[in-house]
Design a protein that fits this description.
5-stranded mixed beta sheet
Length: about 290
Amino acid sequence: EGGLRGKALTPQARRAAAARMVQELSISERRACRYAGLSRTSYRQPPSMNESTASLSTRIIELAHERRRFGYRRIHDLLCLEGHHVNHKRLWRLYKLANLSVRKRRKVKRTTGERQPLMSSRHVNDTWSTDFVMDALASGRRIKCLTVVDDFSRECVDIAVDHGMGGEYVVRLLDQAAQFRGYPLAIRTDQGPEFTSRAFMAWAAARGIRHLLNDAGCPTQNAYIESFNGKFRDECLNEQWFESLTQARQEIAHWRRDYNEQRPHSSLGRIPPAKFAALHRQRAGDARQSPEIK
């Protein structure tokens, strides 16, 4: 009795309890089922998955292994994008049955202070946020990743990877990104030496870009890029082991394309950032072309 304590409520738990009683206590099957509150037919004939449920469960497991930091809601979004019309409750049951729950990370308690308001953007290229993420190759040599995000569409404008970057290097990378998207109205950075250098300040002033500089020790003033960097670390850097700088650039570029074009974003109505930006540009174009109603 001591090893079988606890109330079994679900049929699966009652079936498991009856099996343990038969094996460990050497009692009859009829008696174990009576103690567990389970019929002998249910004990002998457990339910089995049909073909469609089995294939759905296999696809859920594949997506969970491909994207280890995704919970069942994001996996549900991916299945919907693939054309699978499945109820989220059914997906949750299969997700739990496969024991795929993501382990929650313990957050470090920090002292709370007064938060500075973060102004939201109104259109694409309104404000870019940029920051650095550090990592290392298999040889131990450090690499530096410059991440640039559009605050409105949450698109990753660029991720540049190199062993070292100064102010002039950062300026060249931003000019390259602007050739395809245009320059932003404002750019938000921290007080790193690359962003407070003469080259960067002169670049922003020459192009009429407002430089929004965060206060020291206030990452919440740059929450968009901090949120993106967390996803970048969890889903790319922590899942890869780069042998060379070339491999790191290739793998990070692949992840960036997947983030922009495939990965659903919860704050954008659970669609990828590139699709959200395209829909916004289309609505803005239709609004300009529509005649005014008098």
